[in-house]
C-alpha cells in the first residue's frame, strides 16, 4: 500500500501535493509564482497577526472584549474588520486580473485556469466576504442605536452569524494555501463545478464557504427584522424610523427570502458532487438550467440586498450634510419597499439567452425596467434634499456625490441590459462587467465607505483624518472611472468576460487604461490604510466625546462616543421623526432623567468561538473528505449547544447607580462644554459652518 492510501482515513484526499507552494518550486512559471506568493502572504500574514497578539499581550483582551462579546457594536466592528481584510485581497486580485488582460494579447503571464480561479475567488470574496459582512457590520453597529434599542433581539445568535461568515472567509483564505479554489465563477454554474469536469477540491471550497456564510446571513436577516419589529424605543412608530433603519428592514426581509434558494442550490450541488445525485447533470433526469434559475432567484435579490442599506446610508448622509430634513421621506420608504418586492420578479434577466420563449424574456425585461422607477424616485429625492441645502462638503458627501453621478450611469446601462435584444448582443461581455461594477462600486462600496467615515467617530470617539479621506475618495472615484468605463467600450467591441487572453489587438489600449485605473484603486485602498493609521496617531486632537460630531438628527448622535455597552442610560421616548433633531429644536436634546433603572445585558459567551473553530474544521473536513473530523466537529458543536442550553446565568445586571454615575458625568461634560468646544467638535470642515447649529439645550 502506498503512503497516500495508508493515511487516507486520517487525511482524506489531502496530501503533500495539495500544498499550493510546491508547484512553484518544481515548475517556476510566472503563474505559479504569483500563486505561491499569494499563499506565502496568507501564511506570513497569519504568523504576523499571531506574533503581534503575543508581543502586545493582546490575546486576553481579544478573547474577553471581542471574540466572546455579544455586544452588537463590537460584533459590528468585527464584521467590518473582516470585510476590510478580505477587501484587500479582492482588490489585489482585481489588479492582477487587469494586469493579465493588459498583457493578454496572445498570452499574458497567468495560466488560464489560474485566471479562472482569480475571477471566481474575486467575485465570491467581493460579494460574500466584503459587501455582505461590511453591510452586516454597519447594520449591526448603527441600526439598534438608531431605533433606541439596547441590543439586537438575539445577541448570541448574532455572534454565531458572525462566526458563520468568518468560517466562509477562512475557507476561501485557506484555499490559497491548500489545494485550489473553484474555477466556476461566483455563481459556480455546473457543469464547470460538476464532479465530472472538476473533481478537485475547488468547487467544494466554494460550496461550503458560501453555504455556511449564507446560513449566517439568513440568521442575521431574521435577527435584524425581529429587532426592528420588537425593540424600537417607545413612541417610535415605523414611520418615525430613520431611513437607514427602513432600508435595513427591507434588506432583512430580502435576506430571509433570498438566502434559502442559495442554500438549496449549494446543497443540491453538493449532493451531486458527494453522493452522485443528478440534479444538475445532463443524464439521469438532471437539468443544469434548474441550477441557473435557483442561483439567480437568490442572486438578483442579493444585489438589491446589498444596495438598499447603502441607499439608506446615503439618505442619512445627504440630509445631515445638507443641513436639511430628507425630502420625500414617505416616497423614499415606499420606493424601498417597491424595490424589495420587484427584486424577486426579475431574476430571469441574467439568462435571457438560455432559450426560453421571447414572451417570457419580454415579461422579465419589462419587470426589470420597472425597477428604474422607484430608483429614479430616490435619486430625485436625494437631489431635492441637496437643493438649496447648506452643503458641508465633508468626506461622506464626496462619496455621495460620486455615487449620485456614477450610479445613475450604471443603473442606465442596467436598463439597457434589461432589454433582451440588447442583452443578446452584450451578455457575458465586458459591457456586463462594466455595468455591475458601475452599480456595485459607486452604489455599495462608496455607500459603505461613506458610512464608515460618518459613523467612525461614533464608534471610536475620534474622527478619521479628513485630508486622507478626500485623497482616498478621489482615488476611488477616478480609479473607478478609469478601470470600468473602458470596459463598456470593450464589451461593445465584443470582448467576452472571463477571458484570460485575446487575439484582437484592438482590445489592447483599453485594457491598458483599465489596468492604470486599477492601480489608482489600489492607491485608494492604500490611502484608506494610511488614513486609519494617521487618525489613530492623532486621535487626541480629534476626540468627540460629546457624541454629536456632525450635528446629527437621529438617536445614535444623542449618546456619548463611544457609546456605553447598554447604549442608552435611559431609553428615549420618541415623539417625531428625526428624534434628536426634534429634541434639539425644542431645546431638550440632553434631558435630565427622573430615575435610572438596573439594566440587564447578556453575558459573554464562547459559543461563537466554538462554532468558528468547529465550523472551519467541518468545512475543511468536507472539502478534503476527512470524515472522522467532520463527525467530530459536528459532535463538538452540537455538544456545545446542548451544554449552553443548561446555563441559567446568561445575563448580568448593571446596577442603576453605575449607569447613573456614568450618565451624569457625561451630561456634566456636555453642559460644561463651552460653545467653542462644541463648535470644534462639530467642525468637520470650515465650509458651510455657518449653517451649523450648536447642540442646544444641554441640561
Ligand atoms: C448593487 C448591485 C446592482 C444594482 C443596483 C443593479 C441594478 C440594475 N441591474 Fe444589474 N447586475 C448586477 C448588480 C446590480 N445591478 C450584477 C452583479 C450583475 C451581473 C452578475 C453576473 O452575471 O455575474 C448584474 C447584471 C444585470 C443584468 C444581466 C445582464 C446579462 O447577464 O446579460 C441585467 C439585465 O437586465 C441587469 C439589470 C439591472 C437593472 C435594470 C438595474 C436597475 O435597478 C437600475 C435602476 C437605476 C437607474 C435606472 C438609475 C436611476 C434612475 C433614474 C435617474 C430615473 C430615470 C431613468 C429611467 C426612467 C430609465 N443587471
Ligand atoms: C476594487 C476594484 C475592482 C477591480 C479592479 C475589479 C476587477 C474585476 C475583474 C478584472 C473582473 C473579471 C472580469 C472578467 O470577467 O473578465 C471582475 C469580476 C467580478 N467582480 Fe470585480 N473588481 C473590483 C471590485 C469589485 C467589487 C467591489 C465587487 C463586488 C462587491 C466586485 C465583484 C465582481 C464580481 C461578482 C465579478 C464576477 C466574477 C465572475 O465572473 O464570476 N468587484 N472584477
Ligand atoms: Cu439581476
Note the main attributes of this structure:
single chain; mainly alpha; globular; binds heme-A; iron; transmembrane; Cyt_c_Oxase_su1_BS
Reconstruct the topology from this structure:
Blueprint: H1 3-6, H2 8-11, H3 22-26, H4 30-55, H5 59-67, H6 72-102, H7 112-146, H8 155-177, H9 202-230, H10 243-275, H11 288-322, H12 329-342, H13 358-370, H14 372-386, H15 395-417, H16 420-426, H17 430-460, H18 466-492, H19 508-537, H20 579-585, E1 599-602, H21 607-624, H22 627-645, E2 651-654, H23 656-672, H24 675-682
Antiparallel strand pairs: 1-2
Helix pairs in contact: 4-8, 6-7, 6-8, 6-19, 7-8, 7-9, 7-17, 8-9, 8-21, 9-10, 9-21, 10-11, 10-12, 11-14, 11-17, 12-14, 15-17, 15-18, 17-18, 18-19, 21-22
The chain binds heme-A, protoporphyrin IX containing FE and copper (II) ion (CU).
Describe this structure in words.
It comes from Sedimentitalea todarodis. Residues 57-575 form the Cytochrome oxidase subunit I profile domain. The chain crosses the membrane at residues 33-56, 77-99, 119-142, 154-178, 205-226, 238-271, 291-314, 326-348, 360-377, 397-418, 430-455, 467-490, 510-530, 609-642. Belongs to the heme-copper respiratory oxidase family. It is a multi-pass membrane protein. Mean pLDDT is 92; it is low at 683-699. The chain has helices at 3-6, 8-11, 22-26, 30-55, 59-67, 72-102, 112-146, 155-177, 202-230, 243-275, 288-322, 329-342, 358-370, 372-386, 395-417, 420-426, 430-460, 466-492, 508-537, 579-585, 607-624, 627-645, 656-672, 675-682, and strands at residues 599-602, 651-654. The protein is built from 24 helices and 2 strands. The radius of gyration is 26 Å and the shape is globular. Helix 8 packs parallel to helix 21 (607-624). It is an all-alpha fold and 699 residues long. The chain has a two-stranded antiparallel ribbon with strand order 1-2. Bound molecules: heme-A, protoporphyrin IX containing FE and copper (II) ion (CU). Residues 91, 94-95, 97-98, 119-120, 122-123, 126-127, 130-131, 185-186, 433, 437, 440-441, 444-445, 483, 497-498, 518, 521 line the site of protoporphyrin IX containing FE.
